[in-house]
Specification:
It is built from 8 helices and no strands. The chain has 397 residues and is mainly α. Helix 3 (86-105) runs antiparallel to helix 5, helix 4 runs parallel beside helix 6 (227-299) and helix 5 (146-224) packs antiparallel against helix 6. The longest helix has 79 residues, at 146-224.
């Protein structure tokens, strides 16, 4: 990620209206760091199983931006905990909606139908109605008039022109969509990077809360045995737990962004393949058909049947050689493409590994949460006993 394209990290209430994906510009200005408190220590890198969430892997500019943002996070503000990273999540959500809308409105089946109709028109042109003899069936029935041939050719040509016009329009749209998907892919990378910075900043904040701010509260509650102090420590611990869950939600959203990358590329590949098929049809199939028709019509003027037959034979051989070579090339390319899976195995392995890691992390978080609740429950029981004993001692006196 270009250091000059560092996303702006914002807290709830600071967000600007989210723009459409095509118009989304990457921000480059980070908020100024707050004055550090005297008792606070510099933030330390957060260890993460996912190396892409490692603080040390960020650039110096990104590290400075993240540390400055950590200083501004206040988990005592309930909106901060509830909507932390919401701006990035909203971008991913609107981005996903845009991709889905593009898929829903794209009628690739219509293109396939038009290509099929075009092939049917070309194959259907035959002077010899009783035989499937191709273009050179024109010469199998003597006495066929030039007028009849031209009339039939004009009718087929009219239909072909209409189909080609529609295919050309679709081809332009496919090329435009492919370019648009390139831009969307870049924006998805930006959203992914933005979420990464939010997560790293959140984990840095969680470490500081757990290691520096929570222990004094717990120590005070244990020292004073005051229920109010115990409640304050418990409330703070719950805030930390809620913030931890919020960070986990951002990780899930980040995973959606990861999966969207190959999905965009698959859509782009489909657009390019269809555009190439249309181009091949317009540039090769139609001119070949027209050239064959010109030859066919010209041959009707020949008075020498032997010469005409020889010309037909020569052209047939030439066409067969040309088609055989084209068939060879097309068959090889088709076979290669057919052997590919819809999704590469590397993509499936990466997605599967990420899913396993996610499930393991969720299980770990739940296990740790259960342990903390058990410890808190034991502590509350002890504190309650202390309070009851104290009350009894007072009443005995």
């Amino acid at each position: 990620m270009d250091n000059n394209m560092i996303p702006t990290l914002t807290l709830p209430g600071e967000e600007e209206p989210v723009k459409e994906p095509q118009a989304q510009a990457a921000a480059a200005v980070q908020a100024a760091p707050a004055e550090p408190k005297a008792e606070e220590k510099p933030a330390e890198p957060v260890e993460a199983e996912d190396d892409s969430l490692n603080f040390d892997n960020l650039s110096e500019q990104e590290q400075a931006a993240v540390l400055a943002f950590v200083e501004r996070i206040d988990i005592h503000n309930s909106e901060t905990v509830l909507k932390y990273g919401n701006a990035a999540q909203m971008k991913i959500s609107q981005f996903s909606d845009k991709i889905l809308e593009d898929v829903k409105t794209k009628d690739t089946g219509a293109i396939s139908d038009m290509l099929t109709a075009l092939v049917a028109e070309l194959k259907g042109f035959s002077v010899d109605e009783g035989k499937k003899s191709g273009f050179f069936g024109l010469f199998k029935r003597t006495g066929q008039s030039i007028t009849q041939l031209k009339a039939k050719y004009d009718k087929v040509e009219e239909n072909v022109v209409e189909i080609v016009s529609a295919l050309t329009s679709h081809q332009k749209q496919l090329i435009s969509d492919a370019a648009m998907l390139d831009e969307l892919y870049k924006q998805n990378e930006q959203y992914y990077h933005e979420l990464t910075l939010y997560i790293i900043a959140g984990e840095l904040k969680l470490r500081r809360l757990r290691e520096e701010e929570l222990p004094p509260l717990l120590a005070k509650a244990q020292e004073t045995a005051n229920p109010a102090d115990a409640q304050a420590a418990s409330d703070f611990s719950q805030l930390i737990e809620r913030f931890d869950k919020r960070i986990h939600d951002l990780k899930l959203t980040r995973m959606v962004s990861v999966q969207m990358g190959p999905q965009i590329r698959l859509m782009q590949t489909n657009d390019n393949v269809l555009a190439e098929r249309i181009q091949s049809t317009i540039a090769n199939t139609i001119p070949l058909w027209k050239s064959q028709m010109v030859i066919s019509l010209g041959m009707q003027h020949a008075e020498d049947a032997l010469k005409a037959q020889k010309a037909v034979t020569d052209m047939t051989n030439e066409l067969l050689r040309s088609n055989a070579e084209r068939l060879k090339t097309g068959t090889i390319e088709t076979a290669k493409e057919a052997e590919r899976g819809v999704v590469d195995m590397d993509t499936i392995r990466v997605a599967n590994t990420a899913l396993i890691d996610t499930l393991a992390e969720v299980q770990k978080i739940q296990r740790e949460g259960a342990m903390r609740r058990a410890e808190a429950s034991a502590e509350l029981g002890r504190l309650e006993k202390q309070l009851r004993d104290k009350v009894l001692e007072i009443n005995d006196n």
